[in-house]
Amino acid sequence: MSETNPAAAEAAPHRYTAALAAEIEARWQDFWDADGTYAAPNPKGDLAGDAELAARPKKFIMDMFPYPSGAGLHVGHPLGYIATDVFARFQRMTGHNVLHTLGFDAFGLPAEQYAVQTGTHPRASTESNMENMKSQLRRLGLGHDKRRSFATIDPDYYKWTQWIFLQIFNSWYDDEAERARPISELIERFESGERGVPGGRSWSELTEAERADVLGGYRLAYASDAPVNWCPGLGTVLANEEVTADGRSERGNFPVFKAKLRQWNMRITAYADRLLDDLDALDWPEAIKLQQRNWIGRSEGARVDFPIDGEDITVFTTRPDTLFGATYMVLAPEHPLVEKFTPGTWPEGTHDVWTGGHATPAEAVAAYRAQAASKSDVERQAEAKDKTGVFIGSYATNPVNGERVPVFIADYVLMGYGTGAIMAVPAGDQRDFEFARAFELPIRCIVEPTDGRGTDTATWENAFSSYDAKIIGSSNDQVSLDGLGVAEAKTRIIDWLERGGHGEGTVNFRLRDWLFSRQRYWGEPFPIVYDEDGTAHALPESMLPLELPEVEDYSPRTFDPDDADTQPETPLSRNEDWVNVTLDLGDGRGPRRYRRETNTMPNWAGSCWYELRYLDPHNGGKLVDPEIERYWMGPREGMPHGGVDLYVGGAEHAVLHLLYARFWSKVLFDLGHVSSAEPFHKLFNQGMIQAYVYRDSRGIAVPAAEVEERDGGYWYQGEKVSRLLGKMGKSLKNAVTPDEICAEYGADTLRLYEMAMGPLDVSRPWDTRAVVGQFRLLQRLWRNIVDEATGEVTVVDTEEVDEDTLRALHKAIDGVRGDLEGMRFNTAIAKVTELNNHLTKRAGALPRPVAEALVLLVAPLAPHIAEELWRKLGHTDSVVHRDFPVADPAYVVDETVTCVVQIKGKVKARLEVSPGISEDELEKTALADEKVVTALDGAGIRKVIVRAPKLVNIVPA
Known about the structure:
Elements: H1 6-11, H2 18-35, H3 51-54, E1 58-63, H4 79-93, E2 97-100, H5 109-118, H6 122-139, H7 155-169, E3 171-174, E4 179-182, H8 183-192, H9 208-216, E5 221-231, E6 236-238, E7 257-266, H10 272-277, H11 286-296, E8 298-308, E9 311-317, E10 328-331, H12 352-355, H13 361-373, H14 377-381, E11 390-397, E12 404-409, E13 421-424, H15 430-438, H16 486-500, E14 503-509, E15 514-515, E16 528-530, E17 536-538, H17 576-579, E18 580-583, E19 592-596, H18 610-615, H19 626-633, E20 646-649, H20 657-670, E21 683-685, E22 689-695, E23 701-702, E24 708-710, E25 713-716, E26 719-726, H21 738-745, H22 747-756, E27 764-765, H23 772-783, H24 803-821, H25 825-841, H26 848-858, H27 863-872, H28 889-892, E28 897-903, E29 906-913, H29 919-928, H30 930-936, E30 941-947, E31 951-956
Parallel strand pairs: 1-2, 1-20, 10-12, 20-21, 22-27, 28-31
Antiparallel strand pairs: 3-4, 5-6, 5-7, 7-15, 8-9, 8-14, 10-13, 11-12, 16-17, 16-19, 18-19, 22-23, 22-26, 24-25, 25-26, 28-29, 30-31
Helix pairs in contact: 2-21, 2-27, 5-6, 21-22, 22-23, 23-25, 24-25, 24-26, 26-27
């Protein structure tokens, strides 16, 4: 327990206790709020009349958006928030104008799931959760500029989320200029004939609906009928990134199926190259960059057209040099051409093994599609030996040799990669090899094996692929690849394909367009309406924000989780008065009847741009003032794309939030709305605070606080339980709340403990018993300055300080400054502890310069006690904007260092020498040392190796 016993409390009434800490902390939190201590001035107005403040370098520090959970915070949640707060405080004390605030990512599934369970409106539960979380965070003493805080559910905020959506909707990507441009410029090109209209007709010949369809093929935000991840259990579709590896929803763990629905998409694929290339200039962990590179998945190869019934099936391959070995084709079951090329009857000579036992191709295809829809993409890609598929009843033509190759559908081919179709080269791909064996298809060797197996594929047990082998059996009367290496063969065949109009060299990406629709209530409404022809129209800016209407039943309609054939029903569709409206969109047509979009945006929408709103949160007329955005986020030396100076959060958002936010930032940059092409310049991923999970014989978690440790085991209510280190959470019954620790020891102690547990980027186990160590550090700090009996300050007003103390102080200042700058908070605390211990053992009261420097050193880490001690030391200003101490170099360098003297590799003496001693002087000193002379015992010396100032190695003759 942190409290003293009654006798001790009576003897030391002014001791630093949990009760005193609570009183100090509440008082200073009130002061900071009333004083506006953490208000960050903007370049317009605030800085205009303050030359000194305007000259300061800026620092924009951010945490990843928190979601206001109903469970509140446990001690693992504030780890990153405390870290950014310590860093922000240090930056203020080193002369920076610091912007540090925190809002709430408040739309999304959790509130709706809670609403379904309890009947509570999502807004009511979300706002209640936010108030609870704000209270918990305030108690930690976080130095946020509260004027800039907001929630994504505020209409004044999501007005601009909707506005950004419309900028994206009204834009297209100009491949020649390599940037987004207004869709109006594309229309002008179509109208003038500068750009041909797809299909060959002129723009004037097209109907309004036809023009809308053409523009939909270019818009960066577009609606399409496409295969999506349909989750009946949640009543909504999910983005690929929201589906787990085993084909279930990340939220709720429900089964996910493939279904074709009309959905909004973001054409993020247009930015694939830039998203990939611009990673190089970002100061991000390499692991996160690698995840994004892999997710974007750039690969070079060729597009090849296989003719079929007067049309083409197009494939993408990274190995066009193996085209002569393609003996069949495979389409993804969802491929749009499957139905078109599925005839009514089986062709003559169809193998029985190809039909799946079905009477017609249509029956075979329908049955197989149903089977494939029940599997996740990961399951379909699994390296299962038993390959499944079915012949669709048609043949395509291999362009290099004119051979007819059968076309199959199989679940190991996905629409999400390439074109959703492959040319199967069973000799060079293991999955194709296994499929060919299962369906009795030809396997043709086209790469000379280098492992001694020979070219007779009938004897092969597996496929053979190599970039070092020579091409064989690959020639026609126009081109020959025989004898060539892979690189040269690829170049030659691509040239042949392009000359003959059979394909072209191209680049492919794994990245797919971002599915942007949700069939939910609790999200931003789309600012889109549809006319009677189904054409989408954007609402004018004057009609924003389009607010969420009230609905009688705001919960989504959920279905049997295992029923893949259900269709979504959106909550918004139930409010007929809101859905069907008469509007004048200002396009010169007057009032017309429209139907609103009844999907809502995903929860990622609000977090794609929130860094910008922090800059200018009350601007009702603009997304952000350009001058303010340029000041806080514009490009500068070392930051060619601009962005937030430091962004701290978990690594789990590598290919969700971070990729989406980068995309939105680039579109806004292209359109001239911002100067920063990247949202976050420096990214830091904090580790996780873990906790022990205790489980009984059934595997059920039991309350960790009630587990006893005895006899080398762990016991709960008389039963032995297992212990395993894992996550902390309410469901695991091992959560510890910050409120508990603050009540027991105070917020400053919690802050110190979390920062002292280990390096910030490493996961570490929580141990409540160890928290008391940081509490005792603060008690010793308090005693070094305040008399526990009287409450009076004990420092002496003198500038004279003994040299030992000066050296200890300035070494600590130098070390702590470097550690805080490098976010090595655990080692900074260790240095403060070492200094404080030195001062505790030192005789006499502390000189004022030492006491004040000590308080300033502690201020970023434990701000409440630092403010209190600073005030007790007679100051009327806050430590928040005081200068951080600067070390005197003369006291940082050791007065002496220990030099080890070795003879035959064994230590014979230790010498205290000057750090600047020369090698010659050190050699003479070592050889003259009495212990060295005794050890040599008159022996001659063959060699002396000197590494001043720490080592002398003597080799006797």
